[in-house]
Specification:
By secondary structure, the protein is mostly helical. The protein contains 2 helices and 2 strands; from the N terminus they run αβαβ. A two-stranded parallel ribbon has the order 1-2. Helix 2 links the parallel strand 1 (about 70) and strand 2. Helix 1 (about 20-50) packs parallel to helix 2. The longest helix is centred in the middle third of the chain and has 28 residues, at about 20-50.
């Protein structure tokens, strides 16, 4: 990040210029699904062994990071519908 921290506190998957399209929502959705699969795997391991083998998912709730920030760009209607269907919030603002 800009302060020289090699591990920024909020991960960024990608940035772009232009309207938010279905592709952008699908990319965010893939990351969200990977996180959900990891949590399920950790819960199965805990149920089988009684300890957190791959890590405690409660210490790493990254699902809250799955969002799209859209500043001064339009969100295409099909992208907005897809985001609502899979549970990804899109935050928009006209700031300039």
């Amino acid at each position: 990040d800009r302060d020289g921290n090699p591990n920024p506190p909020i991960p960024v998957s990608g940035i772009g210029i232009g309207p938010v399209a279905k592709f952008d929502v699908m990319r965010c959705g893939v990351m969200l699904e990977r996180e959900r699969e990891w949590v399920k795997m950790c819960e199965k391991e805990y149920a089988a062994t009684g300890e957190w083998v791959s890590g405690n998912p409660m210490n790493s709730i990254k699902e809250a990071y799955a969002c799209i920030l859209a500043f001064d760009v339009p969100v295409l209607p099909d992208a907005e519908k897809m985001a609502k269907d899979i549970g990804i919030p899109i935050y928009t603002a006209e700031i300039i």
